[in-house]
Amino acid sequence: MKIKSSEFDRSAPNIKECPNSPFPEFAFIGRSNVGKSSIINLLTERNALAKVSVTPGKTKLINFFRINGSWNLVDLPGYGYAHVSKDKRAEFNEAVADYIEQREKLRLVFVLIDSRLEPQKIDREFLAWLQGTVRPFALIFTKADKLSATKVQSNVAFFMNTVFAGRAEFPRIFTSSSKTKEGRLEILKFIDEMLAERR
After folding, report:
1. In this predicted model, what pLDDT tens digit does every residue of 174-197 receive, in sequence order?
2. Cβ-based neighbours of 159, under 8 Å, separated by 6 or more
3. Residue 111: beta bridge partners?
């Protein structure tokens, strides 16, 4: 897939405010500071399409970006907020849960995982909940340039065997780096294949 156009559509605080459009949606979510905005900018080759911040948890709305005039890339609030009160955190998680469970146009959720870290409790809890929704998802292991290729693959294997132990089939996985552009073509090809299935 070649990205010919990418533009911000709108932000929504909850599912009721999400756009009423015919376009299939691919959502991206992860723990705060996992590099989600960097990956979105990598995929679209736009340096500032999604705002990159040194402050974790800056994305607090559901953000929609129209890609090639034919599908929506959806930037979801992270599931770990460093500087948000407990009542606000519950509101954000409720909006995300409603979107993932109820949004008819959602085709797939990309869950971003930091490839440098051992399985984090918050990632495991979110993935356990996500599997309960029966919503299709794939994993993107970010920041692959920070480690050797061997170490990245070792960490990914440990994560998969730990978090998905006993599962008959693993979800699709990708490794990525916004610095080296690793994973970009593979992720876009996967999205393209899903769009082709729909057609």
Report:
1. 999 999 999 999 999 999 999 998
2. 113, 118, 119, 141
3. 29, 139
Spatial separation of the C-alpha atoms in residues 145 and 162, rounded to whole Å: 23
Query: Is 188 exposed, middle or buried, given 0-12, 13-18 or 19+ CB atoms closer than 10 A?
Result: middle
Question: Token digits for 102?
Answer: 């109820």
Mean pLDDT over 40-59 rounds to 67
Angstrom CA distances, 165 to 48, 178, 187, stand at 38, 29, 24
| AA letter at 69 | G
Q: Picking from 89-98, 109-118, 146-155, which range would have the lowest pLDDT averaged per residue? A: 89-98
Say yes or no: domain 6-198 is CATH 3.40.50.300: yes
Q: What is the DSSP string of the chain?
A: -----EEEEEEESSGGGS---S--EEEEEESTTSSHHHHHHHHHT-TTSS---SSTT---SEEEEEETTTEEEEEPPPS--SSS-HHHHHHHHHHHHHHHHH-TTEEEEEEEEETTSPPPHHHHHHHHHHHHHT--EEEEEE-GGGS-HHHHHHHHHHHHHHHTTT-SSPPEEEE--TTT-TTHHHHHHHHHHHHHHH-
**Alpha-carbon torsion (88, 93, 98, 104), positive or negative:** positive
